[in-house]
Amino acid sequence: MSIDEEEATLVRRLIVGMSAALLVSFSPPGQAQATAALSAPDDFVLGNLQFVLLHELAHLVIGEKQIPILGSEEYAADYIAAMLLIRPRATVLVAENTLLRFAVNTADGFVIAWERSAEYASPIPYWGTHALNVQRFSTVACLLYGSNPERFAALPALVEMPLARAQSCPREYERAAFAVDWLFDTYARKEGDAPGAAVEVRFEPPPSRTSQRLLSLIEERRLIRNTFARLDEFFSLDAPATFVMRTCRQPQAEWNPVTRELVICYELLDTYALMSVARRRGPIESLLSP
């Protein structure tokens, strides 16, 4: 084994261990990870889908309201999406623990995506507008720890977070919370404001049995519709927009300000379903067993 291969193997093992540790640190001692009969793979898919939807809605709101940001808009959208899972606004249509579990599944998804890229020797997108998946994982982990250092006291050691980063996480969380509060206080609808333009929600025919089943689950849980109900509650859109799930021939999601379409591809659901198998393997499975 070459030095590069050995380093890649060590990184993969470390990342899997980090993901398992994060999941374990979230679980209250002696309490089963139950969520209204959702299986672990489905919970993983819905958690990652919810983060992606919030991330793209952050792009929509940033552009619609011309919100000033410093730095990459992709980084800002990540922080907004993560904070809305870890620290939801007052009106919540699902249990807080469900949103926290979604945040943990999102972190796990970034880990698996990073591991898959290393396994297939994919080029590392240093010049990409998004942070590297391993960095996106560390951001969610840091915000989780910073949100409640007592509850997540074991997290830094378990995920091998450097001491300096761990010490900065509460402050990082406070800055993110302040920024999200400022965004809502400044740009959200005020009492008495007229409703904004409507968002049409449309689901085109799913291409696979997996995406068909997952779409049924999404509709049953009203994940998409409840999210847009919250958007309408908080922000007035200047012009109508459309959310659509469709076949795109690649796993992606995008807010297009020209067509005013927020698209999530069914291929992304299929990809998350495949990734969910890795979530239940090895150390994660053994550490989460009763």
Describe the secondary-structure layout.
Elements: H1 3-26, H2 40-64, H3 73-86, H4 96-119, H5 133-147, H6 155-158, H7 163-187, E1 199-203, H8 209-221, H9 223-234, E2 241-246, E3 253-256, E4 261-265, H10 266-279, H11 282-288
Parallel strand pairs: 1-2, 2-4
Antiparallel strand pairs: 3-4
Helix pairs in contact: 1-4, 1-11, 2-3, 2-4, 2-9, 2-10, 3-4, 3-5, 4-5, 4-10, 5-7
- Portion of residues in helices? 55-70%
Number of helices: 11
Q: State the domain count.
A: 2
Beta-strand content: 5-15%
Unreliable runs, pLDDT <50, ≥5 residues? 24-35, 281-290
Average predicted local confidence, pLDDT = 83
Oligomer: single chain
Largest sheet: 4 strands, mixed
H/E topology pattern: HHHHHHHEHHEEEHH
CA-based gyration radius = 19 Å
Distance between the termini: 37 Å
Gross morphology is globular
How many strands appear in the DSSP assignment? 4
Strands of the biggest beta sheet: in what spatial order? 1-2-4-3
- Structural classification: alpha/beta
